[in-house]
Amino acid sequence: MTQAASIASFDTGYSADSTEFCPFKDHTQYLAVGTYQLTDEQEANVRIRKGKTYLFDVTQPLIPQQTIETPAVLDMKWSHALVNDKQVLGIADAQGGVHLYGFNENTLEKVDHVQATDDPSTLCLSLDWASRLNKTDGRIVTSHSNGTVNILTPTESGYVVGEDWHAHDLEAWIAAFDYWNTNVVYSGADDGLFKGWDVRDPSTPTFVYKRHMMGVTTMQSNPNKEHVLATGSYDETIYIWDTRSMRAPVQTCQTPGGGIWRLKWHPTNENRLLSASMHAGAFVVDLKQDEEPMVSTSFLDHTSMAYGADWSFADTSLVASCSFYDHCMHLWKAAD
User: What stretches of residues are WD repeats (predicted)?
Assistant: First the structure.
């Protein structure tokens, strides 16, 4: 296993919890970093959580090109298809809202906002776009601290809340589309349950599993190989599933401690996975058929919980990861 060294770092001030590289060819040098700060201020008996989203050009010295102030950021994802002719970043916030920012040349401007829940004390914990492979499907799935999951649907006048259902009895940490069949959504929560849903009728889950021993925090459909899904948990375990037969995972990888907060498939390599592993750091896992999964690269420079990590779409060995209480973002390279 190779231990990567930091190429560059930036102190984000507020606690950093999300890093996302832009996937569009003319903007792949841009990296968004989201932050979260719980303040002592109150509004309607709810403590205010502030956030900043930084936009970096990673080909330049690590100085933000832009800083956007929002409520605290819990998750961010770029759409892989244009939204009204713009390259758009979706931001899930601590007031149950989703903000959409689109590129206007080399800066981001707000293009939409939708309140995914009416209760300002409910956090929007995650979001995912249906458009990773299906460029004609502009829907967004969000999950919330009250256990609900909903689908945000584009209309001529902007995004609106479409399907909305109570998916879990505890915090729904994650929801994600099956990129190969965007009528299918997966969710995971603090109850340790991993569920599947057909969004055309989400009244009953298509499956419910409790394979993970602790809360399910992350999942992602493999954009390079159909029927492959990765899930991760506070229990430090990554499971790889064949979505055609979900009774048991087809591969298991125990990460080097820390719990797992985010998993990201490599942009082009169907067998490579990035893990933001909270207390332990960030890791690159190589998965090969008929072989044990192997951690090929570790990044251990974070001195606090590594919550965010993402691959560059330009230099696909480049990784950005960020950590919470030490409010730091690092760039580093995965081993070949």
Answer: 209-251
Amino acid code (one letter) for 330 = H
Q: Residue type at 234? A: Y
Separation CA 150–CA 152 (nearest Å)? 7
Report the distance separating Cα 323 and Cα 278, nearest Å: 8
Cβ(176)–Cβ(141) below 8 Å:
yes
What is the rounded distance in angstroms from the CA atom of residue 334 to the CA atom of residue 336?
6
Please provide the average confidence, as pLDDT, over all residues in the chain. Answer: 96
Amino acid type, 247: R
Indicate which CATH number applies to the domain containing 71: 2.130.10.10
Count of the separate structural domains present in the chain:
1
Which residue segment(s) compose the domain that 55 sits in? 2-333
Question: Which residue intervals of 265-332 are DSSP H helices?
Answer: none
Question: What is the Cα–Cα distance from 111 to 160, expressed in whole angstroms?
Answer: 14
**Cβ-based neighbour number of residue 158 at 10 Å:** 13
Rg, C-alpha atoms of the chain: 18
Average pLDDT over residues 204-221: 94
The pairing of beta strand 237-242 with beta strand 228-233:
antiparallel
Q: How far apart are CA 17 and CA 2, in angstroms?
A: 24
Nearest to 308 by CA among 73, 121, 25: 73
Whole-Å CA distances, 241 to 4, 86, 134, 194, 263: 28, 34, 21, 12, 14
Distances (CA, A) of 47 to 18, 36, 93, 120, 321: 21, 13, 14, 10, 27
Cβ contact 129:111 at 8 Å = no
Residue 155, burial from CB neighbour count under 10 angstroms (0-12, 13-18, 19+): exposed
- In this prediction, residue 215 has a pLDDT band, given cuts at 50, 70 and 90, of very high
CB 166 within 8 A of CB 193: no
**For residues 75 and 117, is the Cβ–Cβ distance under 8 A?**
no
pLDDT beyond 90 at 240? yes
pLDDT tier, 261 (very low <50, low <70, confident <90, very high otherwise): very high
Tokens linked to 330: 């690092």
Checking if the pLDDT of 289 tops 80, the result is no
